[in-house]
Amino acid sequence: MSVMIIGIAGGTGSGKSTFTNRLRDAFPNDVAVVYHDNYYRRQDDVPFEERKKVNYDHPASLETDLMIKHLKMLKKGQAVDCPVYDYSAHNRSQETIHIEPKKIILAEGILLLADPLLRSMMDIKIYVEADADERILRRIVRDVKERGRDLDNIVDQYLTTVKPMHYLYVEPTRALADVVINSGMNNVAFDIVKSKIQLMLDEN
Ligand SMILES: Nc1ncnc2c1ncn2[C@@H]1O[C@H](COP(=O)(O)OP(=O)(O)O)[C@@H](O)[C@H]1O
Ligand SMILES: Nc1ccn([C@@H]2O[C@H](COP(=O)(O)O)[C@@H](O)[C@H]2O)c(=O)n1
């Protein structure tokens, strides 16, 4: 089976997951999704108060080597047990997700195109763009509702790590993408990428 990997990067709150999940839902039998966020490092020995202060927007916070290993296995037609990240605990949970190999693998994450080896594995590189003010507003709502955060913590983290790392590591990867799309809800961009996937599936 020939396997294609499509990388979906972009800043926090840009709409990466929205776009990725729409594609997954359009091809439920042929697409598997690997989220880079699930490869944030295990921090069992780090006290919770210290875990809160970690720079999670720096490439060193992610175990990218393990994600590369898993993508290589999926490409060879082997299933993987992917870690599951718990944002409220700032740590990996005890669970894993079993991912069966599929013809199309979607890989998603803010720093997905920042690592040269990981980037080189992508057959198509997509960057989802959105204005910084919209991204932070979406992040505030999401982090309060879904990631167990409070407003003071979100603002402090944004100013100390999220924003500076975005301009240092995430935004520069925009120029490395094959396709830059304006929002994860852009229907024209969605239809174009969907057609490309359909073409790949028909050729296989
Ligand atoms: N174009 C948009 N307009 C309004 N809300 C959006 C848009 N794109 C995403 N959202 C919402 O913003 C939040 C973050 O989007 P998400 O796709 O999870 O971003 P990312 O994965 O890039 O961090 C989600 O609640 C999502 O529903
Ligand atoms: N313990 C953690 C781990 C990560 N984050 C933040 O997640 C963001 C990436 O996820 P998106 O869905 O927003 O792309 C990243 O900006 C990290 O700051 C966190 O807050 N806590």
UniProtKB/TrEMBL annotation:
<dbReference type="GO" id="GO:0004849">
    <property type="term" value="F:uridine kinase activity"/>
</dbReference>
<keyword id="KW-0418">Kinase</keyword>
<dbReference type="InterPro" id="IPR000764">
    <property type="entry name" value="Uridine_kinase-like"/>
</dbReference>
<protein>
    <recommendedName>
        <fullName>Uridine kinase</fullName>
        <ecNumber>2.7.1.48</ecNumber>
    </recommendedName>
</protein>
<feature type="domain" description="Phosphoribulokinase/uridine kinase">
    <location>
        <begin position="5"/>
        <end position="186"/>
    </location>
</feature>
<dbReference type="InterPro" id="IPR027417">
    <property type="entry name" value="P-loop_NTPase"/>
</dbReference>
<comment type="similarity">
    <text>Belongs to the uridine kinase family.</text>
</comment>
<comment type="pathway">
    <text>Pyrimidine metabolism; UMP biosynthesis via salvage pathway; UMP from uridine: step 1/1.</text>
</comment>
<dbReference type="GO" id="GO:0005524">
    <property type="term" value="F:ATP binding"/>
</dbReference>
<comment type="pathway">
    <text>Pyrimidine metabolism; CTP biosynthesis via salvage pathway; CTP from cytidine: step 1/3.</text>
</comment>
<keyword id="KW-0963">Cytoplasm</keyword>
<dbReference type="GO" id="GO:0005737">
    <property type="term" value="C:cytoplasm"/>
</dbReference>
<keyword id="KW-0067">ATP-binding</keyword>
<dbReference type="Pfam" id="PF00485">
    <property type="entry name" value="PRK"/>
</dbReference>
<keyword id="KW-0547">Nucleotide-binding</keyword>
<dbReference type="InterPro" id="IPR006083">
    <property type="entry name" value="PRK/URK"/>
</dbReference>
<keyword id="KW-0808">Transferase</keyword>
